[in-house]
Design goal:
The complex is a heterodimer of chains A (337) and B (558).
Chain A: E1 9-18, E2 21-31, E3 36-40, H1 47-55, E4 62-67, E5 70-71, E6 82-85, H2 97-107, H3 112-125, H4 141-153, E7 159-163, H5 171-188, E8 191-196, H6 199-205, E9 208-213, E10 216-221, H7 223-228, H8 233-238, E11 243-245, H9 248-251, E12 261-265, E13 271-272, E14 278-287, E15 291-298, E16 301-308, E17 319-323, E18 330-333
Parallel strand pairs in A: 3-8, 3-9, 6-7, 7-8
Antiparallel strand pairs in A: 1-2, 1-4, 4-5, 9-10, 11-12, 12-18, 13-17, 14-15, 14-17, 15-16
Chain B: H1 16-48, E1 49-50, E2 53-54, H2 57-64, H3 66-99, H4 105-113, H5 121-131, H6 136-141, H7 150-174, H8 178-186, H9 191-202, H10 204-220, H11 223-228, H12 235-245, H13 249-274, H14 294-322, E3 324-326, E4 330-333, H15 347-376, H16 382-390, H17 397-408, H18 422-432, H19 434-447, H20 450-458, H21 463-492, H22 508-517, H23 521-548
Antiparallel strand pairs in B: 1-2, 3-4
Helix pairs in contact in B: 1-13, 1-15, 1-16, 1-17, 3-7, 3-10, 3-14, 5-7, 5-14, 7-10, 10-13, 12-13, 13-17, 14-23, 15-16, 15-18, 15-19, 15-21, 15-22, 19-21, 20-21, 21-23, 22-23
Classes of the chains: A alpha+beta (337), B mainly alpha (558).
């Protein structure tokens, strides 16, 4: 088949039910080789279940998962050759770091010398060479997660799956490990899926973000696309902050049937001006350093306005006037379907 | 990194993990059906089969005899009175241990657990020395207390059941949310009101659970009533009389069914309660740490010492009596009862130890195997498997033992090959205590995060490799605890095995019973001391071996 036409990993109508609940609802998705994709969504949106379906840890109710045109549905996890890193590290506590990394290679019956060389290579990759003989409990959380990464990568998996790999770690460690994982992924060129509920993490690391809600994909795109052109109200509200205009006074001038779509504008796009078209009363003032966030009551709803740079001091009770620039107001679908 | 097309096409061929799962679940199921269900079926069949066909004739004949109705009444009288008494006593003791700052908690705790280390007839034996016709009290004070009958069973079974109630209540009292107590106190509640409104409701599931457990233990106990019951007969003893005394298997089966019903109900009640037990505490709870309060601590200490002395006295007097020339006439020190110049000599003790070791080894494989199979391979049969695995908790030992005779004592049957050997005794022990061992192992296997299994699978390991390389290295202390539990039970059990022994496979606990029956009380005491010493020595050695291996915090006594 001609190169570039077929996708590396394809999900077709992937569905998983728990009782009557649709945890994953007919998901279609294509990944090209070497891509870094994040499943992003609130807890319970089905992102982890979807990852586990790809890994073979859950059984598909409907649909198929294709790796280079091969259907994986009948294949148990241990035969898929996917590397998985879990939130809880899941290093085997009774084995040393080196033995943990060697585990997958022993399962594949590699020769002893080859295993040893590969373990050394992986330890260098995650900068833990001097810790080879330690047990997991002797390492910090960040180090343990790097061992887990090395262990998952050692058997040369065709896909790397990361299930909230950073959420059990401190903020500082999380920052540095973000960079390390991204760098590693680019260097190895391995197709990667990461599950996260942290939008900053997804925006910083992923080539493409898959925004999920209630078992469905709401939107797929780069961080920029999702921020500037959210397709649905869910995406707009989940990634960054957004005002949904409900007051008829504020909606005036933006045609369209209400209910089907929502009109929305990001707080930083609302323009405070002396002779603005709308006026409101300041109800909340939050000073955040270089920005100031105002809660303004206008037309019976509250609008959030973000002001950058130094301005005159605002007080609760002040009256302000503002504009809603037409090119900044977005029309959002209520849901993807 | 090389990323080649996978060479394996998705296949639905029999997978090695599936085969392993089907094998372990199937083997476990087959064993449970053979050694639990078939004996139970044999009991039911025999209770309904009469020369005239299938019917309730056997039951009708049973209830036609007024004496048998008394036996049922006796069983419930003892069961209910002992349950109430033991609950109150053990609750106080557990409260003193968990909620006060009294001294010597460690020693008091060990004394409270002593009855677990001895056969159930040892309490009755001790009571004979203390309050019997020629007992310490009657001879010292010239009284004429007659302990044989209700009061004998009442006291000895209360002591026998005490540690079981204590362990459950102690666990219930160990967990408490300090914030509740602080709230109650700041709202102005006094100690008695706090106890009624916070402590008691917080432990209600533990109390209910302990009540069901004690009730089951007491109505199914055989050792104490047979020794000290006199003419006051209970169901467990009546089965023995019918089967061993009169070879009336049909009547034995009928009584077995009568004993099975309340025991099964009590166990069902206990399981139902236990499922509700642990929801009250959340991760935000602040553990309650008792603060010193001299007056209260001294009062509870006095109470605990009194209870501990009562338990200790029954054990101590047995030990003492084993070392005197002839109780109660000649109290000079003597070792002659340890010569064991009776029928089989000391042989039954060695047989007991062999049986206990075989029991422990079988249990380690089959009971932890059952727990693993049930946990690792959820399938449609799992619920049935779980039910079968905990069903033995509802089966009194006397009933199971009789079931083994009825089901397996027929030449040509596969199990008949091991009949009359120590193997059938060990197997009977394994399935008699299957539920407790199974739950112990299951609790622990469940605590191990399933992500270890998943991590292992995604790295390409088969289930078998995961068990060997990951699961077993993590749960081996539990596996060991299961082995120790079964060793201890096998050393002291009397009820089920009494139907399975032969002259060449006689057990130590049965020897104590026979010697007591013949009036050789001193020798019975010496044999009992040997059993207790073996159990305690085994525990100490295992604990020591663990220490030497650098392992701490493994709780072997459950």
């Amino acid at each position: 088949m001609p190169l570039g036409v077929s996708m590396f990993l394809s999900l077709r109508g992937v569905t998983r039910r728990f009782g009557s609940v649709l945890a994953v609802d007919h998901v279609d998705l294509d990944l090209s080789e070497g891509e870094f994709v994040c499943f992003l969504g609130p807890s319970g949106c089905g992102k982890t279940t979807l990852l586990r379906l790809v890994a073979g840890l859950e059984i598909l109710d409907e649909g198929e998962i294709l790796l280079e045109e091969t259907d994986l549905s009948g294949l148990p996890a241990r035969k898929r050759n996917f590397g998985v890193v879990f939130q809880s590290y899941s290093l085997f506590p009774n084995l040393t770091v080196a033995r943990n990394i060697a585990y997958g290679l022993e399962c594949r019956k590699w020769a002893k010398a080859k295993i040893e060389a590969r373990v050394g290579e992986m330890l260098d990759l995650v900068h833990l060479g001097q810790h080879a003989e330690k047990h997991p409990h002797e390492l910090s959380g960040g180090m343990q997660q790097r061992v887990a990464l090395a262990r998952a990568l050692a058997p040369e998996p065709s896909v790397l799956l990361l299930d909230e790999p950073l959420s059990a770690l401190d903020a500082k460690v999380r920052e540095s490990l973000r960079g390390e994982i991204s760098e590693l992924q680019r260097r190895l060129g391995i197709t990667t899926i990461m599950v996260t509920h942290d939008q900053d993490e997804a925006m910083e690391m992923a080539d493409r973000i898959v925004a999920m809600n209630r078992g469905r994909i709401e939107q797929v795109g780069s961080a920029e696309e999702l921020y500037w052109e959210p397709a649905t109200r869910f995406v707009g509200e989940f990634i960054g902050r957004i005002n949904v205009l409900s007051a008829s006074e504020l909606r005036a001038g933006f045609d369209g049937p209400p209910g089907e779509t929502a009109l929305a504008i990001r707080p930083e796009h609302v323009v405070l001006s002396e002779d603005g078209a709308h006026s409101g009363t300041v109800r909340k003032v939050a000073f955040l350093g270089n920005t100031m966030r105002l809660g303004v009551e206008a037309g019976g709803q509250e609008i959030e306005i973000e002001v950058h740079g130094r301005r005159r001091r605002m007080n609760v009770g002040d009256t302000v006037t503002f504009d809603l620039p037409a090119d900044r107001v977005r029309r959002l679908a209520v849901s993807s379907r | 990194m090389s990323v080649g097309a996978p060479t394996v096409r998705a296949s639905r061929l029999p997978d090695s993990d599936r085969l392993f799962g089907v094998f372990t679940v199937g083997a476990t199921g087959l064993l449970l059906v053979t050694f639990v269900l078939i004996p139970l079926w044999a009991i039911l069949k025999n209770s309904f089969v009469t020369p005239e066909g299938i019917g309730l004739d056997n039951f009708a004949r049973y209830f036609a005899d007024a004496r048998f109705i008394t036996v049922v009444g006796n069983t419930f009288e003892v069961g209910i009175s002992v349950t109430l008494t033991t609950l109150v006593l053990a609750y106080g003791f557990a409260y003193a241990i968990q909620r006060t700052c009294m001294p010597f908690k460690g020693v008091l705790r060990i004394i409270a657990l002593l009855p677990v280390f001895s056969p159930s007839l040892v309490q009755a034996l001790g009571l004979q020395f203390l309050l019997g016709r020629n007992g310490f009290v009657n001879r010292t004070f010239g009284t004429e207390i007659d302990i044989y009958g209700f009061w004998g069973i009442f006291i000895s079974d209360a002591v026998y059941a005490f540690p079981h109630a204590f362990l459950i209540l102690s666990t219930a009292l160990a967990v408490a949310d300090a914030r509740l107590y602080e709230s109650a106190e700041t709202l102005g509640a006094g100690p008695w009101r706090i106890f009624r409104t916070v402590t008691l409701p917080g432990t209600r599931y533990g109390i209910a659970s302990a009540a069901f457990v004690v009730f089951t233990i007491v109505i199914t106990d055989f050792g104490n009533p047979v020794v000290i019951g006199g003419n006051y007969s209970v169901l467990a003893v009546e089965i023995y009389n019918q089967v061993s005394g009169q070879a009336n298997f049909a009547m034995g089966a009928v009584i077995g069914v009568l004993l099975l019903l309340p025991a099964a109900l009590a166990v069902t009640g206990e399981k139902w309660i236990a499922r509700r037990q642990f929801a009250s505490l959340t991760s935000q709870s602040v553990p309650l740490v008792p603060r010193p309060n001299p007056a209260r601590d001294i009062a509870w200490f006095a109470y605990s010492v009194l209870v501990a002395l009562a338990i200790l006295s029954l054990v101590a007097i047995v030990i003492y009596a084993s070392f005197v020339r002839l109780w109660p006439y000649n109290l000079s020190f003597s070792l002659r009862h340890y010569e064991f110049d009776v029928q089989n000599g000391i042989q039954p003790l060695w047989t007991s130890i062999s049986v206990a070791i075989v029991t422990a080894l079988l249990a380690i494989v089959f009971v932890t195997g059952a727990a693993y199979a049930n946990h690792a391979f959820p399938m449609r049969a799992s619920r049935i498997l779980y039910f079968l695995a905990i069903l033995p908790a509802a089966v009194p030992g006397m009933v199971l033992g009789l079931g083994y005779i009825l089901a397996f004592n027929t030449p040509g049957q596969p199990v008949y090959l091991i009949y009359d050997t120590i193997l059938i005794i060990a197997v009977c022990n394994v399935y008699h205590y299957h539920a407790q061992g199974f739950l112990l192992a299951t609790t622990n296997i469940k605590q191990i995060s399933s992500t270890f299994d998943e991590a292992s699978a995604t790295l390409g390991a088969t289930k078998l490799r995961t068990v060997w390389r990951v699961t077993l290295p993590m749960i081996w202390p539990t596996v060991l605890a299961v082995g120790v539990f079964f060793f201890m039970r096998a050393m002291v059990t009397l009820s089920a095995v009494i139907f399975l022994i032969t002259p060449s496979t006689q057990l130590a606990a049965v020897s104590v019973l026979y010697l007591d029956d013949r009036g050789a009380l001193n020798q019975a005491a010496a044999f009992a001391v040997c059993i207790m010493a073996t159990v305690v020595a085994f525990l100490v050695l295992t604990q020591l071996a663990l220490r030497l291996a650098g392992i701490r915090g493994v709780n072997l006594v459950r």
